[in-house]
């Protein structure tokens, strides 16, 4: 079968990494060749940029600079990892992608939509996801989960985790608006329920996308951006 590109979006602590792990395991038991990746990062070049962005080192240079860095990382990730994997027939599961830039830099960063769109076109270069799962839950629930987890990530909150809770709630609304604008690609799943119930809901959305890929043996279904 030809590859499929599935992205996971949502706020802080929404359960994206957890659900990618569940889905990857389920798909592998059915024989799919699965690649799990994340943004910012996923390729050596993009991982180098990740540190600059999440440490807050670029924050003082402004949101335009940060947006360009996210786009640079995305371009490297797409060309070095995602496109080759899709062309090799794999299922790529990606923790955040272009919709995070639309929401974080575009909506809550107050960047002009034209600027965000231009960066997206260059960085994505036609590799639009076949399916985007948006995990939706109240921002306060996600933030509490993120705080409660143990380990290095909880002890060292990143540049975005330190922001005011009202900004996180604005992002939740922005993801829902985005899903309403692109209902074929973006599917909203209630993230405020037990993890295995979320996993079942996600599998129901993913199965038809993979079945279509198998039955058609078609090329990557991602829409080419104009
Ligand atoms: N960013 C951007 O601004 N622009 C861009 O273009 C891109 C990104 C691509 C990356 O952060 C930051 O970059 C992100 C936006 C910005 N910042 N923020 N905020 P990251 O990669 O370090 O982190 P994240 O993407 O926000 O993910 P996260 O905080 O690690 O959360 P998650 O992956 O969605 O959740 P999780 O790790 O699966 O679960 C969190 C905890 O909840 C954990 O302890 C789980 O065991 C628990 N959990 C998970 N599911 C459940 C359920 N169902 N019930 C109860 N508890 C659960």
Task: Please trace the helix and strand order, writing H or E for each element.
Answer: EHEHHEHHEHHHEH
Number of strands: 5
How much of the sequence lies in strands comes to 5-15%
Radius of gyration: 17 Å
Report the total helices: 9
The overall number of domains is 1
- Span from first to last CA? 26 Å
Shape: globular
Helix content: 55-70%
Average pLDDT level: 93
Q: What's the CATH C level?
A: Alpha Beta
Low-confidence sequence ranges: none
Largest sheet: 5 strands, parallel
The CATH architecture is 3-Layer(aba) Sandwich
The CATH homologous superfamily = P-loop containing nucleotide triphosphate hydrolases
Provide the descriptors you would attach to this structure in a database record.
single chain, 226 residues, alpha/beta, Rossmann fold, 5-stranded parallel β-sheet, 9 helices, binds ligand Z5A
């Amino acid at each position: 079968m030809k590859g499929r590109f599935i992205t996971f979006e949502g706020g802080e602590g929404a359960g994206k990494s957890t659900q990618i792990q569940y889905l990857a395991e389920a798909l592998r038991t059915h024989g799919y060749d699965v690649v799990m990746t994340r943004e910012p990062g996923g390729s050596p070049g993009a991982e180098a940029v990740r540190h600059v962005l999440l440490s807050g080192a670029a924050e003082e240079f402004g949101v335009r600079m940060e947006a360009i860095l996210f786009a640079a990382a995305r371009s490297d990730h797409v060309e070095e990892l995602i496109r080759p994997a899709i062309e090799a027939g794999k299922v790529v599961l990606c923790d955040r992608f272009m919709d995070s830039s639309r929401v974080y830099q575009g909506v809550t960063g107050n960047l002009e939509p034209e600027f965000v769109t231009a960066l997206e076109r260059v960085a994505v270069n036609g590799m639009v996801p076949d399916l985007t799962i948006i995990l939706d839950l109240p921002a306060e629930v996600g933030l509490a989960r993120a705080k409660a987890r143990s380990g290095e990530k909880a002890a060292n909150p990143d540049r975005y985790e330190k922001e005011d809770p009202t900004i996180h709630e604005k992002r939740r609304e922005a993801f829902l608006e985005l899903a309403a604008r692109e209902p074929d690609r973006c599917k909203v799943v209630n993230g405020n329920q037990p993890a295995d119930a979320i996993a079942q809901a996600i599998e129901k959305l993913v199965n038809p996308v993979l079945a279509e890929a198998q039955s058609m043996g078609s090329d990557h279904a991602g829409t080419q951006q104009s």
